[in-house]
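Can't attach files on this board, so I'm pasting raw text. These are the components:
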Amino acid sequence: MREILRVDMSTLQVTREPLPEKWARYGGRALTSAIVYSEVPAGADPLGPENKLVIAPGLLGGTSAPNGGRLSVGAKSPLTGGIKEANSGGTAAHALGKMGIAAIIIEGAPADKTALYALRLFPDGTVDVVRRHDLAGLGAYETVAVAKGIEASEHRMSDKSSFLVIGPSGEMKMKSAGIAVTDPLGHPNRYAGRGGLGAVMGSKGLKLIAIFEEGLKPKQHADKDAFIAAVRKFSGALTTHAVTSQALPTFGTNVLANIINEAGGYPTRNFSSGQFEGVDGISGETMREITVERGGNVKHGCHTGCVIQCSRYYVDEDGHYMTKGPEYESAWSLGANCGIDDMDMVAKLDRKCGEIGIDTIEAGVMLGVYMASGEIAFGDGEAALKALDEIGRGTELGKVLGDGAEATGVKFGVKNIPVVKHQGLPAYDPRPIQGIGVTYATSTMGADHTAGYTITSNVLAVGGTVDPLKPEGQAALSQGLQIATAMLDAMGLCIFVAFAVLDMPEALEAIHEMAAAHTGDDWDVDALMQLGKETLAYERIFNEHAGFTAADDRLPAFFLEEKLPPHDVVFTVTDEELDSVYSFVPEVAEQLGIE
Amino acid sequence: MRVDVVLFAHFSGFQPDGKGGRHARAFEFEEGTTIADVIAMLGLPDEPRVIFVNSTHAPEEQELRDGDRLAIFPPVAGG
Ligand code: SF4
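---
Top answer:
Structure tokens for the assembled complex are below.
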């Protein structure tokens, strides 16, 4: 029986309750969104005591399901004003799963606004909240180092620990603050980055969540043999598909840089061109060459059980760890979008974001807007580092920049601000890649590529092909992928499994077979898709209550008006098609009895 | 006719000069040469590919034209 752990930061009381029967089939994003919908008033101040931070492993969390250890973090977003689920790798999700925890709900807020706490979960089931003023103002890496030292001496805890931490940006409640999650070596380099959830954690007076799993065993299955058979089928597919078995493990996610650039959809210098002349310097191939030469690690998983292993570390010239090998999105946002073509500079910026605890996508989109204002120049990495320092120090300027791209653009009078629902656009221009524009416009999350990754069929020829330059078929493509992604997020599966799932029917079968064998409930393909639809229905209706209308499901006007070179095209999917993406919601809401 | 050929990820090792890298190499081809002919000439492995001519997806049977830029990728993805 899975449990909900409720932490009231007003009273510092921790209570346990059984997971309600109606949510027995939910995990991950399905659970965070259902809880936020049910418990957070849509009109709540995102940084006030009424908002709740919900942390949930997927339904398969705590098992040996391949790539099944992703973590969902939900709340009302201070950046978008709507519902948010930010998804992270790292070791925390499996640890929570093994503890039998379906979700942690952190609610209320300390009366003393300056108080800072750590929430600690021990393997014997003890949970406490302790004051931790010694961590005030520390960067994410230092926070983990200090916390580990204390726990090791006080509790003799080994390395089997996971930490969720915020940097100074979260303590200062900035809207681009994320929550860092530690990886298998204890580096806080995985992020529930988007939507300002670090600020929500900061508003609860929580600097750190420590999870100790020493001695805990993976969860029991309803049918162990069937589970093992399904796991074999799933990992067989992942280790066969060319993308998940070769490209991702060899080059990491940044293998995308060259192909998106070639397709003319690589946003350059604040979305003013679709190709960057300096792309090779910040590409996945170059990153691999540099890292191999310096003796850095070029292949590992962000949690146990990952069979794809797209992660790597970036090291300095002396071979010392600098940061996670910047992901495609980070290398783009801090690279091409700022006109920066130097991998070492990108890594410095990435590490700086990691220290102050901000989302690298929002940071890079913000920097692109700031550069477009003329305050600093495109290509000036040192000036970008200084701008990030302002955020870390919380200066007057830093407070503006730390609130993200839109706040910065408004302050400095920039015309083209690439945001949807106040959130910065990721690394694909929606003009020559129209499907992703549908996802950016309509996603419940604000501009978010992961919500419905149409790049698959639009550019990569995975899961069929849909011409990226034409509006036809994009709404249906985005809708199908948004539903499937919500399902993967609910299961706790890494979305990169989708590349295999879209091309190999046995991979999709293996997912419902794992769910059925693990839980003992009936699962099939229809049930998987229903799970995705229910998740999106909670989110969509929360957003409606929070005041979002069809007008919020639109791209900024310049994507419809200003042609992007080299294809010289604008976004042409019609408003009617955008409005059709969520047409399934009323029926699903009625089934759920929500409105 | 002259065509620029660029190869990415592990395909870059198949450039005839053996130097790897993602920079374009210029080739002289007969009129009527198709993408499939170039793939055979390069000896690319028999696996799925994603192909662009002048930044637009192109099928392997397409004939190349003077001044084209041909870019070939193995299956890649990320996000
Ligand atoms: S494929 Fe990459 S992101 Fe996904 S679980 Fe593995 S290491 Fe983490």
